[in-house]
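Handout, section 4.2: multi-component inputs.
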Amino acid sequence: MTEQGMIGIENLRVAFGQGADSVVAVDGVSLSVRDGESFGLVGESGSGKSTVLRAVSGLNHDWSGRVAVAGVEQSRRRAKGFFKTCQMVFQDPYGSLHPRHPVDRILAEPIAIHGLGDTDGRIDRVLLEVGLGPSFRFRYPHQLSGGQRQRVAIARALVLEPRLLLLDEPTSALDVSVQAEILNLLRRLRAERGLTLVLVSHNLAVVANLCDRLAVMNRGRIVEEMTVEDLRRGEAAQPYTRQLLRASQGYDRAAAESFRDFA
Amino acid sequence: MSDSPLLEVSNLRVSFPTRQGVTEAVRGVSFTVGREKLGIVGESGSGKSMTGRSVLRLVPAPGVVGADRLAFRGEDLLGASDKRLRAIRGRRIAMVMQDPKFSLNPVMTVGRQIAEAYRVHSDAGPAEARRRALEMLEAVRIRDPERVYGRYPHEVSGGMGQRIMIAMMLIPEPELLIADEPTSALDVTVQMQVLAILDDLCGRRGMGMIFISHDLNLVASFCDRILIMYAGRVVESCRASELRNATHPYTRGLLDSLPRLDDPRAELPVLTRDPAWLTEGGQ
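Output:
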């Protein structure tokens, strides 16, 4: 492990489209996440928070700047071994699982790709770990609730025993009571496995619940980095963050009037 | 006059026949709406959307709606002819859905869609409808109405799309608005701005509103009164300001399971569902 920790990003830039139609989604983002840390990326839609995550995970090839994961400089294409270190969980558990593959096949595939062996043992253990149990092995996604599907998605990420888990709005498609279960599960898994988490969310309270530190993004740039303690105390340095904090505290006629756009 | 309710619903039931038997989505819901903001809160599958839809008889086939009474200003909606219902839909009771992407016509400029909504419900000419549509765009705080009028739905942002939807629904000046998760697809700051518009229009026109949402905190801060639904029944109703003191274990469980910025505990209490909630009296 080098001193730069689990993730080191310097001057990351991601643009979509060509020439005059080009949209800069991420514009010079630098951040670092320590080994074992839980880091939140917060922002409104279009702020670039998911794009940063996708560049780290290797899902987006068109980026410039520097990305290092677990001390290894990353190129645009990722080696197979990278995905053994770094796995991702997506927002929509209805869209991220193959509808015609049973849970068993969904979980067996990464094990086969990486040639890990002991498929049965690994699947049973990981299903227990995410609180589902072996009885779920031969069910199809349509036979599962949203919360159970998200547990399967988490199991699929964990079955390779990664050190870094990237979470893109993992609970925003779920009911609040199910969200609480998934947040508790992620917190327990992080403690048990010493995982490093990066959580992308628009929900400040969810980030505060799971993370130690966060970065607030707007229009492709990081507005500020802060600790969760600062966030809880409402001690934001930037007006954009203060506005976001106020908006997340429920409807307030006067507050709505004061909102403005931040360029 | 102002005391008589706009909408009376008594023992509303919605059921869907399936191959496995009849699924009851709404099981005996009763409430009234006056010139107020009534919130209906619940998790997915609680029947809150079906309750809102059944008021306008918009429950999709093969769903069956039944009620002891379903009346708008004393007029029965359940037995009303399709023709009579069309005169009420949009004109007197309007509905705003969750996602503007799926509710706007993609091949028609937004201005024409709003103007059309006006012309269907009045005998105004095209010039008058255009003028009213521009006024309405301004009322929902769209900065450059002339420019937005000529845009297609894919050329506007989500927040603007939802404001356009609201403009279209409010242009015939309905007496009751049913808003089903009208701001759930929007960013928090935009959400606040859209709610402020709805709030003002409600206050100014004396419109009644049914606000359907899964977001307890939002409903508590926005509405006057709240119904909490679980498995097709109303398990609790209270004044919005009193939600903190809710007594039903389901409501308490929902409130407790929300992570909060002002509460640093890590482990969130998980809701344990009591089968008794399914059968208890409701309302």
